[in-house]
Amino acid sequence: MNGATSTRDRWTPRLLSILRTVTAFVFMEHGTQKLFHFPPAPTPAHIMPGHLAPHLMVAGLLEAFGGLLILVGLFTRPVAFILAGEMAVAYFMVHAKQGFWPLLNRGESAVIYCFVFLYFVAAGGGVWSVDALWGKGS
Predict the structure, then answer these.
(1) Which of 12, 53, 64, 77 is the most exposed place for a label (fewest CB within 10 A)?
(2) What pTM was computed for the model?
(3) Which tens digit of pLDDT belongs to each residue from 30-69?
């Protein structure tokens, strides 16, 4: 039992850092697609470059640059709090109007991101983060 406990204790903070990194990398794509059209959408975009609605511009900035901060684990807790709020707003402004079930209203990503970011608010960025390097908590 001690071996299992020590393995779990050793890997939990590392896996938190891996979860943070992978989540942020995938999340950033939403912002870079809005702002820079990269990666290119499989279907032609309905929005011409440079013509984003203000709320989409804010969302793109939060997703691209907030995602970058989460990726490196810098200011993880406050940034994750903001991004969780962004995802909650996105879900209720866009997806929930189209029905109750997240799979059917295409809001499952927003729901998952919201709760993963809330987890980062509580857990921090893990041992492989700038926050941990600076001693501001894991």
Answers:
(1) 53
(2) 0.89
(3) 999 999 999 987 765 555 556 789 999 999 999 999 999 9
